[in-house]
Amino acid sequence: MKDVASHAGVSTATVSRVLNGHAAPTQETRARVLAAIEELGYRPNALARSLRTTATKTFGLVISDLVNPFFAEIARAVEQEARAHGYCVVLANADESAEQQTTYVRTLLDRRVDGLLVCPATDDAAWMDEVVATGLPLVLLDRSVPGADCPVVRVDGAEALADLAATLVGAGHERVGVIAGPSDTSTGRERLAQFGSALAELGHPVHPDHVVHGDFRWESGKQAAAKLMGLPDRPTALVAMDNLMGLGALEQVRELGLSVPGDVGIAVYDDQPWFPLLDPPLTVIAQPTVEMGRAAARCLIALIADEQPPDVDLTARLVKRGSCGETGRG
Amino acid sequence: MKDVASHAGVSTATVSRVLNGHAAPTQETRARVLAAIEELGYRPNALARSLRTTATKTFGLVISDLVNPFFAEIARAVEQEARAHGYCVVLANADESAEQQTTYVRTLLDRRVDGLLVCPATDDAAWMDEVVATGLPLVLLDRSVPGADCPVVRVDGAEALADLAATLVGAGHERVGVIAGPSDTSTGRERLAQFGSALAELGHPVHPDHVVHGDFRWESGKQAAAKLMGLPDRPTALVAMDNLMGLGALEQVRELGLSVPGDVGIAVYDDQPWFPLLDPPLTVIAQPTVEMGRAAARCLIALIADEQPPDVDLTARLVKRGSCGETGRG
DNA sequence: TTGTAAGCGTTATCAG
DNA sequence: CTGATAACGCTTACAA
Asked: Are residue A104 and residue A217 in the same domain, yes or no?
C-alpha cells in the first residue's frame, strides 16, 4: 500500500479512501491511485483491514454433515444469499459430532466472523454459551436447542407427517415401523412425536417395539431396518426420518429380498432430485432447503444490522410416489 | 490480552509465549497465565496473529459445484485431512462458473490463505496468473488446465473406459451415444477421447452425431439424452461422463417411456452409495473421491513445507450393475 | 481535498 | 526467564 501511495504520489490515507469509495478524493487523484494499483497489481490485505474495522464480512456456517445432500443444498443456498449481500461463508463440517462442532465454533469465533449459522449436532448447548458471551449474532438452522434464545429457522413437518400417516392407514398398513432420529436432536424428537400422535389419532398407534433410533446416517438406517424387519410381528411399512437413514433402510429391505411396496412400504423424510429414479420412486416429505438457507442468511444479516428478526417457520409437504402402496391400495 | 497480562501480573509478551508453547516461561508463571486466561475467558484474535505471523493456518478450497455429490465427498476428505494437520478449510463454490471462480480465488488471496486447492471450472487460467504472482502454494484437483505448472491430483479413467467400451460391445451395443462434459475442461475432453478411441479400437467408432456436450449438470444431461434419443438412428446405449448428467439422462429416458437396459443401456462416470438402489442399478465408473481429497490436501501441505510433491494419479474402475444389459447379454 | 499519526491485537527482537 | 517496544497493513479522526 505504501508502494501504491508513493507510486501515485499520495499518502496511504488517500489510497485507502479510494479503495473504500470515499467521496473525498478528486477524480484526478482517484485515477492516479487506481492506475498505480493496477500497475503494481496491488491487493489489499483483508486481515489487516478486518483487524482495524473489526468486521470480516464473513459468516461461519457449521453444518451437521456435509455429505448429507440435504445439508449440502442448504449450504449452497446460504452461500448464495450471503454473497449477494457481500458476505463470504466459511463452511465447517461437524460430521454429526458435538465435540467437533464445539471445536469449529471456537475456531470461527477466533477468526472473528461477523455472524454464525449453526445446524446443531445435538441438544448439548455448551458451545452456545461461548458464542453468547461474545455477543456474536447467531442463527440456528434446521434444529433448535432447548434453552436457546436466538432466531431459529426451521421446518414444520406436522401437517406433512399427518398426511403421511393418513396415506399409510389409507393404504391398509396396520403396523408402521419408525426409524427415528437421535432423541437428543429437536428434529429427531419432533418428527417422531408428531408422526406418532397422527397415527394414534387414526387409531393405529405405533408399537413401542416398532420405533428404532438412528443417527441420521445411512448405516444406522440400515441396521434399524434389519432390526424392525426381523421382528416376529414385523411392520408393513417403514418410515425413516431423514434421507440417509431411508436409503439405508431401502438397501436393507432389498438385501432381505423384500419387494417395495409389495412386502413393505417405505417413506422417508427429505426429498432429493433423484428420488423419483429409485426403485421404487420414494414417497417423501419434502423440505424447502433453498428457502431455509436463504432465510437463515437473511436472518443473520438482519441480526447484524441490529434488527430483531423473528423465527422463520417453513412448511414441509408430502410427495406421494407410490412406495407405500398408496397408488395401488389407497 | 492486556487484561490477561495484568491479571496474571506479567507482560503481554509472556502471555504470548505461554499461548504459543514457548520453552521460556516457568511452570509457575505459565500456571498463573493459564488461570487468568481461563478466568477471563480470553480467546486470542486469529486475525491479529495472522497479520503478525503471515500465516493463517487456512486452506482455500474452490470447488466447481457443491451440490454435485462427487465434489461434496472430495470437500469432506480435504477438510478432514487438513484438520488432521492443523489447517482449517474455507470452502468456496464456483457453481461451474469461471467468473465466480476468479472472484473466489481473489477473495481467498485477499484473506491470505496459506494455500489454495482448486477444481478448475474451465481451461481459462487467467485466475492462475494472479495466484502464481503471489507465490501462493497451489494444487489443482480433478481437472487440470493447459499450461499450469503446479501439482495436479487427478484420476486416470482410461482403463475403466476401455473396460466399459468392451462391456458395451460385448453386450451387443452397436451404437453408443456419449453425453460428454464441456470441451473446455480437461475431464470433459479426456473422457470423451479415451472412450472414443477404446470403442474405435473395438471396431465400433462413435458416430459424430452421437456425441453431445453437456455442462456436467443434471439439466444438460437430460437435454442431451432427449436429443440423442430423438435421432432417427438412435443409440442403443448412452454413456454420461458425470453423475449429474447421467441422472438427467436416466430421467429423460424414463420420461420417454423407454426401459433400461431393454430399450437403451446407460452407464455413467462417478459412483454414489445409492446408485445400486436406482431403477435400474447403474453401471458406473467409480472414482476414489476420498483418496483424491486426502492426496490433494497432503500435496498442498508438502508444497507449503517447501517440498516438491509429484502429481498424483489415481485410477478409476468399472463397476458393472447391469444397466447396459451386460448381465443378460454380455 | 489531502496528509499525519494513532491504534486494531498479536508476535519477535532485544535488553535486562 | 521476563519486559519494553517495534512492527504487521490497514482505517480514521484530526489538522492543514
From this structure: no
Protein-covered nucleotides on strand D (Cβ within 7 A) = 1-5, 7-13
Hey, are the CB atoms on A47 and B45 less than 8 Å from each other? no
CA distances from A50 to A46, A105, B110, B326 (A): 6, 19, 11, 59
**pLDDT per residue as tens digits for the range A162-188:** 999 999 999 999 999 999 999 999 999
- Asked whether B58 and B91 are in contact (CB, 8 A), the reply is no
Distance CA A205, CA A199 (A): 5
Question: How many structural domains is chain A composed of?
Answer: 3
- Model confidence at B67, pLDDT cuts 50, 70, 90, reads confident
Q: Give every strand in the sheet of A265-269, ordered side by side.
A: A211-213, A176-180, A237-240, A265-269, A283-286, A317-319
The grid coordinates listed for A138 are 447467531
Residue B310, preceding bond cis, omega within 30 degrees? no
B68 and B114 together in one domain: yes
Beta bridge partners of B315: B156
Please, are residues B245 and B268 in contact by the beta-carbon 8 Å criterion? Answer: yes
A34 and A63: one domain? no
Residue A217 grid cell: 446416517
Q: Are residues B137 and B176 in the same domain?
A: no
Mean pLDDT of B114-132: 94
Among B47, B64, B68, pick the best mutation site for testing chain A contact (most A Cβ within 10 A): B47
Tell me whether residue B60 is in a domain.
yes
Residue B323 falls inside a structural domain: no
Q: Can you tell me the distance from the alpha carbon of B10 to that of B3, in angstroms, rounded to the nearest whole number? A: 10
Extract the C-alpha cell encoding A275: 428420488
Closest CA to A191 of A75, A77, A63, A287: A287
Contacts for B47 with CB less than 8 Å, ≥ 6 apart: A47, A50, A51, A56, A111, A112
Q: What is the CATH number of the domain that holds A13?
A: 1.10.260.40
The residue with cell 475403466 is: B160
- Please list every residue in chain A whose beta carbon sits closer than 8 Å to the beta carbon of residue B79: 66, 93
Q: What is the CATH number of the domain that holds A130?
A: 3.40.50.2300
Look up the domain containing A34 and give its range. Answer: 2-44
The cell for A224 is 434399524
Q: Is B147 exposed, middle or buried (0-12, 13-18, 19+ CB in 10 A)?
A: exposed
B299 and B195 together in one domain: no
- A124 and A73 co-located in one domain: yes
For residue range A242-283, what is the model confidence (pLDDT) as tens digits?
999 999 999 999 999 999 999 999 999 999 999 999 999 999
Instruction: For residue B276, list chain A residues with Cβ-Cβ distance below 8 A.
Output: 251
At position B139, the amino acid (one-letter code) is V
